[in-house]
Amino acid sequence: MQRALDRHAQKVESIAAAVRERVRESAPSHVSKGGVPHFVPLPGDKRRAGKPIDISSLNEVIHIDAERMECVAEPGVTFAQLVDATLRHGLAPTVVPELEGISIGGAVAGCSVESMSYEYGGFHDSCLEYEVVTGEGEVLVCSPEKEPLIFEMMHGSYGTLGMLTRVKFRLIPAKPYVKLEHRTYRSIEDYNQAMVSECEKGDFEFIDGIVHGPNELVLCLGNFVDSAPYVSDYRWLNIYYKSTRERSEDYLRTEDYFFRYDTECHWMTKTVPPLEWKPVRFAVGKTFLGSTNMIQWSRRLEKVLSLKKRPDVVCDVFIPGDRFVEFFEWYARDFVFYPLWVVPYRPAKVYPWISDDLAARIGEGLFIDCAIYGKPNGGSVDYSVLLEEKVYELDGLKTLISRNHYTPERFWEIYNQPNYEKVKRRLDPKGTFPDLLESLARVE
Question: Is 401 within a domain?
Answer without folding.
Answer: no
